[in-house]
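Ticket #4471: structure export looks truncated?
Reporter: QA, pipeline team
Priority: medium

Steps to reproduce: submit the single chain below to the structure queue and open the exported record.
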Amino acid sequence: MNTITQDMRFKQVVIEYSFKYGVTTAAIRYKTNRQNIYRWRKKYDGTVRSLADGSHRPHNYPNQYTEEEIKLVKNMRRRNPHAGLVVFWVKLRQRGYTRSISGLYKLLGRIDGKPVNLPDPKYIPKPSE
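Actual output as written to the record:
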């Protein structure tokens, strides 16, 4: 990254001010809290680059869906395309699915794009007497 962002420049100014006048005074003047300034000072090594935002991507994802679980959900959805979410979840539980219903909803959103909703029944008027 070759650019210095406004955030990086702001953090550097606050840190330099806090070295000269103290953290509490810097926090009051720049309308931020002391904890942030202490965190920035710990990270600061004299260069603006050290204040750059790091990646928020997790290093690992231990509870992600396994291939067997995804295959089970896909096969069941193919065989039960019109089943509602709760009915579909119960059928999956009977076949060894252990995750929550909200997790299933998210997975179906990733697989199908959107879980299938049942169409509303058509209104059939009663014959008049």
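Status: closed, not a bug. The export was complete when the record was re-opened. Leaving a note from the reviewer for reference: Helices lie at 6-21, 23-30, 34-43, 67-79, 85-94, 101-111.
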